Amino acid sequence: MYRIVRKEALAPTLSLFEIEAPLVARKARAGQFVILRINEEGERIPLTIADFDRARETITCVFQEVGKTTKELGTLCEGDYLQDFAGPLGLPSHIENFGRVVCVGGGLGVAPVFPIARALKEAGNEVIGIMGARTKELLFWEEKMYSACSELWVTTDDGSYSRKGFVTDLLREVIEKKKDVGLCVAIGPLPMMRAVCGLTREYGLKTVVSLNSIMVDGTGMCGCCRVTVGGKTKFACVDGPEFDGHLVDFEEMARRAVIYKPQEQLAVSRYVKNSAHNCSCGCGGGR
Amino acid sequence: MNGGSKPKKTIEPKKNPMPCQEPAVRARNFNEVALGYSEEAVVAEANRCLQCKNAPCRQGCPVEVDIPAFIGLAAGGDFYGAIRKLKEKNALPAVCGRVCPQESQCEKYCTLGKKHEPVAIGRIERFCADWELAGAALPQEVKPPTGKKVAVVGSGPSGLTCAADLAKLGHQVTIFEALHVPGGVLMYGIPEFRLPKNVVQTEIGNLKDLGVNIEVNAVVGKFAVVDELLNGGGFDAVFIGTGAGLPYFMNIPGENACGVYSANEFLTRTNLMKAYRFPEADTPIRVGRKVAVLGGGNVAMDAARTALRLGAEESWIVYRRSKKELPARHEEVEHAEEEGVKFAFLTSPTRIIYNDDYWVTAMECLQYKLGEPDASGRRSPVPIPGSEFVMDVDTVVVAIGQGPNPLVPGTTEGLQCNKKGNIVADPGTGATSKPGVYAGGDVVTGAATVILAMGAGRTAAKSIHAYLSGKN
Fold first, then answer.
1. Contact A192, A169 (CB under 8 A)
2. CATH for A100-210, among 3.40.50.80, 3.10.20.70, 3.90.25.10, 3.20.20.150?
């Protein structure tokens, strides 16, 4: 069992968990993920590592309540336990001194892009951060990102905070203004990563994306997470989760991401019907 | 061989039949198909054994069970004695009695089998094991602690056997399992209807009683590599039994379309994650109206039969050779046929056809004929030019085999592997190219059977014990 030592509500449906997992924390590196299961009936879901603390022996994950499992996860509070927590899985990000790099986080993607930006900065890169969200209240970790970047550009789709527009608008500006960008790392929803790759391809700027495919075991055993990269089938769990974004077949990714949509909808409606928000400590999900 | 001095007894030419759920009923539920012998039937069956002095059956058993001895005890109704005798050599008799390919092992060599049906050794084994599981577990003898620590990577058949043997010898054993429950393929692969999961967990419980420590959610190669277990981890030796956890695909166009599963995924969702209970269990699975399973082994049979139970209207085995070459256990093929699984022999797909939403709608197939025998001794399938035809299907399960999972071999320095990625280990000892590191089971041999993996686990346990005894 793995204890949730800290919960932070980042936005109405966005939560952060800091989870006690000594063996995972000892080895975790930027770019890797964990697989967790809430309880005996639970499914195994992958979450990308948003931070790790070797001294506190914890892993931090950020998740958005979209499906049944993440909604249920949202009802857990500090002091509650997760049934299973395995990792660190997948290959860590490739970190070296590229000179100048851009790290783009869209929506929830800010969480996994943060440790990568930090590692790149520690490796001597000049890190330009770009983060965006649909609207102001969904923005989180601005200060944390700022600490990992030399400069940080922020945008909201609706203009409710900072600049109005998409991360790709800022990215184009950054690339035009700052020459010699050696690498772009982009993590966020599929359409965002796809749009970023479309843009960076124009400039011939190598772009790494992190794919959050559907997984079961997360150790290369089932092949559920397969994705076509450069015409070849790869397993996101063991060959990734990061790939050269210019080679990823995003169309296929998008189709495979909704394989279980009808089942997910059924599970969510059943869950919502059967349970009001009944967290264990009565905080109403705020803690 | 007919035991001249013994009084002649009348031999029943056929095995006592195994009571089973009716095919039409069982094809729609996940309960165990074979219900097990009654006490009366097991005594009758055990009495068919000729008790041959040279016991040819024993050469067919990879873990060297003293078959005539345990059957002799069962014949006299001494099930306690029989299970003790079995457990001297076999840590998982309830599993082996159910899933061993007896027809190509012990029963293949049974003297009775020359004229009649062989003794149903597997069924008697299962009865004795279930008899124990139904009551209190037998006390097991454990030698005094040696102070040596062994790490076993993977909790499938080879790892469990190796762990049990070493624990009995007094070594302190920790098993590291990547998934959230121990058992490996016994849990994720073999279906409930063939091997109930409570049977597996009870057998594993007996192992824990021996003092074996099991760490789940522990992915070796990730949270620690083998070298770290040896240096700093405090382990004196490591056994790698990580199995064949890498699914092979056909490499034909359309294989990544929605509705195409590896057998590993299809079975893991169903068995390990209990997707057949969705939405009570959270993991979903989607089985279409018409399912095609590619391949002809036990895994393919399991997948085809699982598809029926998940509600498929039609479930097909698509195999490029003929019925005679099917590598699956005879009983599995029979059961599949009885349940209504259909077979397309001498057929193999060339591409998977999908609709605008990227969902499978059909497979284009080619027909084959049998040519000359290949390296495996089986007649090789030869495609018939121009024989293309389209088979309408909405789910495809690829069950053409698995390779070794690369997580552990790929992170262990100095560990020699072959071209396919299998760990190179001495078949007589399980020793690898790396001192103190042993390996066995599918990660060494490629996908094989439960019992062969158990045999390899036993072999390695012997060598590890010798290695540790010499290391002071």
1. no
2. 3.40.50.80
Contact B245 A220 (CB under 8 A): yes
Q: Is residue B139's pLDDT more than 80?
A: no
| Cβ atoms within 10 Å of B251's Cβ, excluding its own | 8
The alpha carbon of residue B394 is apart from the nearest alpha carbon of chain A, in Å, by 13
Give the largest CA-CA distance in chain B.
Answer: 76
* CA dihedral over B16, B21, B27, B29, signed as positive or negative: negative
pLDDT digits (tens, 9 = 90+) for A213-258: 999 999 999 999 999 999 999 999 999 999 999 999 999 999 999 9
CB-CB under 8 Å, A41 with B281: yes
Which residue reads 């522990």 in tokens?
B218
* Topology adopted by domain A2-89: Elongation Factor Tu (Ef-tu); domain 3 (2.40.30)
Q: Which two tokens stand for residue A139?
A: 């923005």
Q: What is the DSSP letter of A91?
A: P
**Residue A243 pairs with which residues in a beta bridge?**
A209
Residue that is written with structure tokens 């016994």 in the block: B186
> How distant is the alpha carbon of residue B393 from its chain centre?
28
Q: Is A44 at the interface with chain B, CB within 8 A?
A: yes
Q: Where are the alpha helices (DSSP H) in B169-314?
A: 185-188, 197-209, 226-230, 263-267, 298-309
pLDDT digits (tens, 9 = 90+) for B256-286: 999 999 999 999 999 999 999 999 999 999 9
Is residue B449 very low, low, confident or very high in pLDDT (cuts 50, 70, 90)? confident
pLDDT tens digits, B75-117: 999 999 999 999 988 989 999 999 888 988 999 999 999 999 9
Structure tokens at B84: 């003790």
